[in-house]
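Sample 3 of the quickstart, ligand 4'-deoxy-4'-aminopyridoxal-5'-phosphate:
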Amino acid sequence: MADIFDKQLTAVMEHGVRMRPKPIYNALEVRDGEVFLDGQPMVMAARNDYLGLAHDPRVVRAAAEAAHRWGASSSASRLIGGSLTLHEELEARLAAFLGCEAAIVTTTGFEANLALAPLLGRGDVVFSDKANHASLIEAVRLGFADRRWYRHSDTADLERKLAAADPDAAKVIFTDGLFSMEGDLCRLPELASLARRHGARLVVDGAHDIGLLGPRGRGVGDHFGLPDAIDLHTGTLSKGFGSIGGFLAGPREVIHYLRHTSRSVIFTTSMPPASAAAALAALTVVETEPERRTRALEVARRVRDGLRGLGFDTGDSVTPIVPVITGRTDMATALWREVLAAGVLASPVSAPAVPEERSLVRLSLQATHTDEEIARILAAFAAGGRKLGLIPDAPAVPAARPAGSVTAAPGQQTSACAVMDRVS
Ligand code: PMP
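Result:
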């Protein structure tokens, strides 16, 4: 008889996913873009702190003061003693920021997406992009609705699937706003028009774009000039907002319903006071300092243009998530090791986070990266790429920027792998 532990462990070993995270050391006196790994200083390009707010003194002070005043934990879930005025203030501020009637905050962004499950009833149909984040996929699996997975950003495939569904069924489309592995944007105008034509609701996970994209930082809706296209937003406070926590924002009744039915809201301890206060302080910065968005996009554009000029494939990225696509997983790992040895901390990404043949090294760039750090990143990739034969020895002709590239001018705008080291 098979033993359940042995069976699953054998499967994991066969797929070669034996990874262990390497601990990072942050010296108190250094800036957020620089960390130490195995005693060596590194340019940090593997975090999602796009606006550099996790180390902003105003955000850190707000967190510290809240911890002193409210304690280290709220020690209870929202419905039974864990609702603080800080949570309610953050909900009101987020709803106003996104132009929605109401919002709920959750303890993580993952839980915000899981909280969608009660929307998915029997007989309903949910259409989900295949490249959506794992937490949206989990929400689909938790719900009772029929599931249709459409090819990544393939609106023709989605349209076929919408047309084939029961016209009387209630329908909803789930998509990431900014896809976290390759840094490409969802095709919001097409998705919104398909949703309207087929009577479907559109739910967008703005984890990576809210705070960063659009003239007011409200995410992809703001970026595309379609503020009302999204029926329900989910998001995280752990990326553009430099804290931790998640949220849902939308019509008042829908938020009320989810607050009282979503298990990931009801049955977990609420967001810690320090995190809520940090997010509130960060939101003020997001609202008042658009130049941070401009700088984050400018850093990303320079790194992306530099990598393309060297001959690397950076896919359809138009954002501070810049993938260096190697195709083969062993090449992604080898390139990641080379740039690590040269003092740049990026993230190796392979299946199942991306399709097998699109393994990559992911760079996450931020407003606080300096020009000197940009140069170090490019030098590390140039040397590593040439050594591995991934790029030509002579500099290639600079490639044209792809259509739709996000720049500062018109609209300011999972990692499956943390810092990983293969055990074997
Ligand atoms: N959605 C997306 C698109 C993400 O990339 C992530 C985190 N990597 C989440 C949701 C979950 O957010 P959190 O880390 O706050 O749980």
